[in-house]
Amino acid sequence: MADTLTIGIDLGGTDIKGSLVDATGTLVCSRTIPTEAARGPQHVLARIAWLIEDLRRDEAAAGRQVIAAGIGSPGPLSCRDGVVYQAANLPGWNNVPIRANLAAASGLPITLENDANAAAYAEFVAGAGRGTENMVLLTLGTGIGGGVIVDGHLQHGAFENAGEIGHTIVQPDGRPCPCGQRGCLERYASASAVAQRYLEAARQCDSPPTLAGRGDVTSADVAAAARAGDEIAARVWDEACRYLAVACVNLQHVLNPERIVLGGGMMNAGEQVLEPTRRHYAALRWQLADDTLQIVPALLGNRAGMIGAALLARYERMSGD
Ligand SMILES: [Zn+2]
After folding, report:
1. What distance in angstroms lies between residue 51's CA and the mean position of ligand 1's atoms?
2. How far, in Å, from the CA of 78 to the mean position of ligand 1?
3. How remote is the CA of residue 142 from the centroid of ligand 1, in Å?
4. Other CB atoms closer than 10 Å to residue 103's CB: what's the count?
5. 204: confidence class by pLDDT, cuts 50, 70, 90
């Protein structure tokens, strides 16, 4: 079994990425095809099935058997039922039975997982979480995705919503979130929140800051402006890192992980996120025990979703046998 391969699929609104992955999480080969999401779920399912078949053509060349496929998808979804309830950037996706559909099309056992959990599992096995048994991944993008590993196992929870750390409340009665709550972490510390908060602060300012008048500000722009001495950018950026540090302290006390791994587009700023987050964490954390966690960058980039999907398919196949 150690010599077998599994397929990992990362389903996104723009592209579908697929790869053959070995037991260590190493990519044997990869392909990317356009999702063509506007043509609806049946069309997208057919494209995933085609990609799985295409990857299996390399099975013979690799000389190793493909034993299962894993799908990392936007959610909400049910891993247990194999159904995607809804998917960001995939119009028309309502209660799509993706596992049954792709199992019938491919003849392979299919595992479904949400994309953030798949990425967390990949970092745990083959990336920045290697060597730990307890780890949390936070992906800082449009929102904040999360995945939690406790004692070596990816956590789902009673209602399969464990790890939705972006929707932990860090500011009661704070900024409204599309989820219906107020003050969610991702309204302060995601890449899009940093850009939005900068624009709001700049509008209230008398002397126009660096990025004034631009409608398409990104977190990278705010990071660059902060480095160039823009005080509003520096303040918004520092506040985002402080909220991340609050999340780290809270995760420390709930889960006691060895490491918190930060990924997603905002982490292109690297040390500009890590240094202030670590500094705020050191100032905020308790002194009762020496259980300080490490805050480290993710290592697998945008390959994490498909690597994790493939590794979870292997995990499920092994535990099912
Ligand atoms: Zn929320």
Report:
1. 34
2. 19
3. 12
4. 16
5. confident
